[in-house]
Amino acid sequence: MTSYSASPPLHRNRSALGRAALAALLTFSAAGAQAQNLLELFEAARGFDAGYLSARSQFDANLARAEQARAGLLPQAGLSAGANWGNVDTAGAGASRSINNQNVTLSANQPLYRPANRLAFEQGQLSVEVARSQLVQAEQELVLRTTSAYFDVLAAIDTLAFVQAQKSAVSEQLASAKRNFEVGTTTITDSREAQARFDLVVAQEIAAENDLRVKRLALDQLVGKSDVTPRPLAVPVALPAVSPANPEAWVAQAETTHPTILQATRGLEIAQLETRRAEAGHKPTLDLVGQYQVARGPSTLFPTAGNVRTNTASVGVQFNMPLFAGYAIQNRVKETLALEEKARTDLEAARRGVTQATRSAYFGVLSGQGQVKALEAAEASSQSALEANQLGYQVGVRINIDVLNAQSQLFQTKRDLAQARYNVLLGQLRLKQASGQLTPADLQAINALLAQ
Question: Could you tell me which of 371, 376, 405, 374 has the C-alpha nearest to residue 388?
Fold first, then answer.
């Protein structure tokens, strides 16, 4: 008579994942007081990340460079001084005398009409907007890098928990196969198959532990802290819907807000002003000039002896009209016109690239949401399949490898589902970045989904 008393009870295998998950949650809860949410880690990254701090310094430098163009419209003043000494020896007279001269000159210049300087100032103001959009772009990239590193750690934690749960389930299945072999109800094949699957899961566990360490190091380096513990998503997970639910609406928003398009637009305007600056090379300039000089030296009126002091003051206007510069101005205009056309082409390329990236990001989010729904259904189906195989194994209509395969499928589905949820949340941020709307405030919506 065949006996199945050595087979594992159904509820014991069903609870394998629950026990491993509970152990992972207890481990996480032990560090709950030190756990950080996404906003906290982003603020830490903004004050530590070398790439973002470099972008801020570059922004400050660009502001200072833009202000340098203002100097061409403001007065210029300078102070100069000089002194010289000499000896005059009159040949045949047998006499010599020493002479010395000193002078101090204060000069000032105020541009009255310099069109090139005015255009350079306008270019500087446009470059400020370019610099600001570059900083916004760097901040958006930091938001994505921080979120990606955050979810990488959570995904690695989930993977390790699922592998450990699978290890526990396979361990029970291995023990059951060995007991059944000892009582003669199964062949050695079941034991060897379970042992092979157990050894494989052990290798997966080692890899998962190492991957978690690497992901934690990456997050620590980004935020400048040690042993960072990110908060997981609260259960059940409710993913937000995409709004607006129309890719063309996202594209329309990108046309007016995307930093890349803004930079290309301002680049075209700067190139147009550069052409006008080149053409201004033909135009005259007019400056208001003034000078005050104090000089001391020997008198030039004979027979006055000794040194005299003279004070000289002058105010006037200085006009300059270029007549011919060897065709330099004409060729400079040709160069700037070509660069203007290049900037116009760059703007069109930027618009096309942003449009394509926005649509791709939108459909990527929709695809991710569809995958989440499909994997949620697959998880329920895989759980039912596992229970059916376990029951079939107990009554002798299923073999050990069937149960092992069903367990592997369930744990793989759970891992894929967790990763798909993270991908959807990250994809929504990528969509906002693609449309130029991403700000640190967008992290608050994700923060609200985290366990408190």
Answer: 405
Single-letter amino acid code for the residue at 309? R
Say which DSSP state 186 is in: S
Tokens of 336: 């700037």
Distant-in-sequence, close-in-space partners of 309: CB < 8 Å, separation ≥ 6: 294, 295, 296
Tokens, residue 435: 């449309």
**Percent of the chain residues past pLDDT 70, beyond the cut:** 88
Distance CA 259, CA 99 (A): 68
DSSP secondary structure letters along 305-342: -SEEEEEEEEEEEEEE-----TTHHHHHHHHHHHHHHH
Structure tokens at 270: 């700067």
Cβ(233)–Cβ(151) under 8 Å?
no
Helix (H) or strand (E) holding 77: strand 76-90
CA angle 193, 198, 199 (to 5 degrees): 100
Burial of 354 (0-12, 13-18, 19+ CB in 10 A): buried
Cβ pair 283, 125 in contact under 8 A:
no
Which residue carries 């970045």 as its tokens?
433
| Length of the chain counted residue by residue | 452
Residue 297 burial (CB count, 10 A): 16
Mean pLDDT is highest, among 92-101, 132-141, 188-197, for 132-141
How many Å apart are CA 129 and CA 75, to the nearest integer?
Answer: 26
Report the side by side order of strands in the sheet with 95-113: 76-90, 95-113, 285-298, 307-320
What is the per-residue pLDDT across 350-402, written as a single tens digit (0 to 9) for each? 999 999 999 999 999 999 999 999 999 999 999 999 999 889 888 878 877 88
Enumerate domains of the chain plus CATH numbers: 10-74+114-283+322-447 (1.20.1600.10), 75-113+284-321 (2.20.200)
Q: Is the distance from CB of 217 to CB of 226 less than 8 angstroms?
A: no
